[in-house]
Specification:
This protein has 272 residues and is of the alpha/beta class. 47% of the residues lie in helices and 11% in strands. Strands 1, 2, 3, 6, 7 and 8 form a 6-stranded parallel sheet that branches. The chain has a two-stranded parallel sheet with strand order 4-5. The longest helix has 21 residues, at 37-57. The structure holds nickel (II) ion (NI).
């Protein structure tokens, strides 16, 4: 965990300058003795930049602050999460599948979609599911300043609270991307950052069977499964494959003895 409020992009910029200067020193033979120090620093700079970037984009890394991506538990528990909705008719279809099997899930909604379909938010809550904040415009938070990040979060919390009576206390950054400033802003807004441990790239619609197969192949006790009932703010791609895959995933996991819980419930199960 880093305590600096430096943006990832600033750190990468700084590293790029260090790498260029080091290479120049190496080329000019200024830092060449006794070993090629310039070249060594340049290689180190590239490696550090790579590690900093991986930590901003990989869902299970804690370098910029604590995120939740799965539970360490010996119990056969699993959490389904759906991003980017509400998005008719698919959000309703997902809710129908969950209702048929009496399964709770967690929906990370986009603020501007939520503003359009508050009745879907109310249905999500009325049917026992959890709501999370997925920003207002589904923007990469690494590209916004602190004020912009806070605005994305607050606006979405307001829309959710207006629809269901209370704001969520969990959020998922678009694409999972975060850095020190994003994490610090979430701590200030008292939002837990939720990532995932099982993704199937359902957002590119590879086929319901493929989505289900990829998901089932990775699920273990305490997994948090990422699926999409929406399509960002574009709302262009259909999500019927995800709806069909959800049905397969639930039935297969129920047959294997898994119990489905919300993100809040699976967070409590961490045995550490
Ligand atoms: Ni998303």
């Amino acid at each position: 965990m880093v305590d600096t409020n430096m943006r990832l992009i600033s750190m990468l910029g700084l590293l790029t300058i260090i790498v260029i200067i080091s290479l120049l020193f190496d080329y000019l033979r200024i830092l060449k003795r006794p070993v090629r120090l310039g070249l060594g620093v340049a290689v180190l700079g590239i490696v550090v930049g790579f590690i900093l970037t991986l930590n901003a984009v990989l869902p299970a890394n804690h370098f910029y602050g604590p995120v939740f991506s799965e539970s360490r538990t010996s119990q056969k528990l699993v959490a389904l999460t759906f991003d980017d909705g509400p998005y008719p008719p698919y959000t309703g279809q997902v809710l129908d599948v969950l209702k048929e099997r009496n399964i709770p899930a967690t929906f990370f909604v986009i603020g501007q979609n939520a503003a359009k379909y508050p009745e879907l938010l109310r249905r999500i809550v009325a049917e026992g599911h959890q709501l999370g904040n997925h920003t207002y415009n589904h923007v990469d938070l690494l590209k916004l300043d602190r004020q912009g990040i806070i605005a994305e979060i607050e606006k979405t919390n307001q829309v959710i609270a207006a629809a269901v009576g209370y704001p969520p206390h969990v959020m998922r950054p678009p694409h999972g991307f975060r850095d020190a400033v994003v994490m610090d802003a979430m701590a200030e807004k008292k939002l837990k950052v939720i990532e995932w441990s099982v993704a199937s790239r359902d957002w590119v619609n590879p086929g319901a069977e493929v989505i289900a197969e990829r998901t089932l192949g990775k699920v273990q006790n305490g997994s948090v499964i990422l699926l999409h009932d929406g399509d960002g703010i574009a709302a262009a791609l259909p999500r019927e494959q995800t709806v069909a895959a959800t049905r397969i995933i639930i039935d297969k996991l129920l047959a294997q003895g898994y119990t489905f819980v919300t993100v809040d419930e699976i967070r409590k199960m961490s045995e550490e």
